[in-house]
Amino acid sequence: MSALPKRSALVAFVALAVAVLAVLPHLAEPYYVTLVLPAFAYAIALLGFNLLFGTTGLLSFGHALFVAIGAYSTAVLTSKMGVKSFEAIVLVSGVVAVLAAVPVALLSVRYVRIFFGILTLAFGMLFHSFLFKFYDLTGGDTGIRVLRPTLLGMPFAELDKTAFLIGPFYYACLLLLVLLGLAMWRVVHSPFGLQLVAIRENPRKAEYLGVRVRLFRFLAFLISAFYCAVGGAILAINTGQADPELAYWTHSGELVFMTVLGGFASFFGPLVGAFAFIFLKSELMGATQYWRFFLGATLALIVIGFPRGLMGVASDLWRKACRA
Amino acid sequence: MSTTSELLIEALGVRKAYGAFVALDGVSLTVSASETVAIVGPNGAGKTTLVNLLTGLLKPTDGVVRFKGHDIAGIGPVTLAQRGMARAFQLVHIFPAMTVAETIAVAVVSQTGRSLHLFASLRRDAALWAKVREVAAIFGLEGKLETESRLLSQGEKKLLDIASAFALVPEVILLDEPTSGVSSGDKHGIMTTLVAASKRAGVKAIILVEHDMDLVAEYATRIVALQAGKVLADRTPDAFFGDPDIVAAIVGRRVGQSRENA
Amino acid sequence: MTSFFDVLLGGVFHASVLFLVAAGLQLVFGVQRIVNLACGSFYALGAYFGITAVNWSTAHGAPAWSFLPVLVLSGVLLGAIGPVIERLLRTVYKRDEAFQLLLTFALVLMFQDVLRFFWGATPQQLGNLSMSYGKLAIGEVSFPTYNVLVMAASIAIAVSLGLFLQRTRYGRILRATAENREMAEALGADVRGIYASVFTLGTVLGTVGGALVVPTAAASLDMPVELVVEAFAVVVIGGLGSMRGAVAGALVVGLTRALAISFYAELEVLAIYVIVIAVLIARPAGLFGKPVE
Questions:
Q1: Same domain membership, residue A179 and residue A321
Q2: pLDDT at position C293
Q3: How many angstroms separate the CA atoms of B124 and A155, rounded?
Q4: Strand partners, B235
Q5: Which residues pair with B27 in a beta bridge?
Q6: Rounded CA separation C279/C273 (Å)
Q7: pTM given for the model
Q8: A321: containing domain
Q9: Which terminus of chain A faces fewer neighbouring Cβ atoms within 10 Å, N or C?
Q10: ipTM score assigned to the predicted complex
Q11: What's the number of domains chain A is made of?
């Protein structure tokens, strides 16, 4: 709700970003284009995550659980049930995650703040241990293979793996990101979104103004689970594997990291954060074997010095520019 | 010829005990339309407990509390708002990062049943913002619609808190020390605004919890005095202030305690 | 029967070590309201440093039996990083809990590579050192003396902590600060100093716990993140902020893990977390925690 540039400027920015992303495969090296795919995946996942965190004020340290559900649903659908349609995969993964989210959310939304975080961490680890240990069902530590999906029924069999990923699949993901982004924009700027913000700002007052706090937190949770699962599906198709480490608590921590890096108080923050994190991590991994240290140092820097993330820095600069 | 006023709230023989401690003992009172009922009494007399019972936050140990004929024991704030009663607290509650307009909008959205509209555009809902402006104007906040709540003055925050409660279009509004924290010069101004606003907003009755007896004398149509969990008096202001024993019991107890809560 | 006792004692041993880390977590949360995700990192640091210390001391002529005191000492010495980390966390005390949690997560990431830098990626261990104290035999059951010593040490520490918190003046001040920071400050408590001391004590408990475990387990780069999984189960089951909860939770987790491993290995962590969820449904504040919300 802070000062945004005019609507038309916003639309222009977004259109520009989409255009850049659309031509990227033709301009950039395949290596960089392959990085954009996980960025798409996380961008979608974080759109959902931030509905719960930035908008509703609930910090979950277990949302990687839903990313993993998305990945494993995709794996089971493609390699065990013969379902190859990307559209069906996305939908089913999302629905499975929502179903799984129901008991988790029911229990977790009774609590707030640190207790909510710990509870969600517990659920995440519960799922991870299930994935890791039940080899017969889940493939244990190797996970389950993910086969290439069809896009609008087309298998693109003539393309090899990389060509498929940076070609038709890239555009399918971009489209998905745009559609899901528009949907989330609507939700955040709807009467429902307003009530969520009220819940974040002062849950007690919100109740007295007739807002059903627990129900709305519950709904926000379910929506966030859907988005995370879609992100997980894209990740799984990209790597060709559903891996139990997707559900580990440190992966949930990374989701939070990315969101805060981009700026949790802004709608675009998580999107920026996803891209920034993926590229930062990739560059660091290429530069040193101690990349985790520098990644951690970046997070510490953001938390201490730039809590509103990259979008916060950008909006400060914008404000200064406007005054000049 | 007198018309019987609509009975809105009815508390019958209400008793609230916490183990051995009895907070309220056999309290009965009614609130009808067109009334402004002030609840007074020293701290510890049971005002807060009574108010919590009248607003459905607590369940009575004994007795019953009815709002428009329905038992409201323990219904909670959300259902309370849906049934038509709003409550504003002594300590100012705001949504710090939300603007004045957005704050009032929260109430209007719940009141018009639009809370679950996930895909409707908030921005383009002209009717919503018209209603918001209307409520804000009643409380003199129309100039601050786009200001974030945390940037308002204490008095403005108080007005906003109450304004958002009014936006629920309640039939009964309960104001918990509405002028506390406000400088004495402003107190009368706020009370006049509140009473006028209530009429305009279609509020049928006001319940007031107040320490300031001047305000009570001027604005209340009836005074209910509590003492040690029981109703000491339930009279019109004239009858109340005309009885020296009652006045001494309520005012005398509070010697040495400043009445200005500024 | 013997194997059942072995399993039981193994579980209690694991619980003893877990308790130390959990006690540190509880202290820091109880007084400072910070959930320290880096507790596992301190534990791992204690483990690695302990190995280095023992190897160093043996190389310099220390007798074989001295490894236990060396481990304890090295763990205590590592407490020196406590004030340093606390100083870093101090920058976000006034902020939302989310940021505090995130900062400790940043520490987890950073510590991963600090450990890697100093000790490399291969797991390290102390060989059969734990056997050098021999075994204690009670009837048919025999158990390494070292493990018994560790359990005894853990109990001793638990009792001392309890007495410290309940009976000493400083302990009372700590509890007061945990209850109500502003009030304690208004009454003259040096809250800054208290925060630094509490955090350091929490750190030492973690590093000593890690040091004590190395004769029986390898130190690896997985330790920091793996321990958090169990440590959290302990504090959730026991109740956030409660020392008694740390004991109870540690016992539940330690024994569950030992039993699960011996009967149906797949169940290990799963069993622990099923209990966590069950406790949260039945008694949301944990066994000894204060009611929440």
A1: no
A2: 46
A3: 43
A4: B223
A5: B14
A6: 10
A7: 0.91
A8: 288-324
A9: C
A10: 0.91
A11: 2
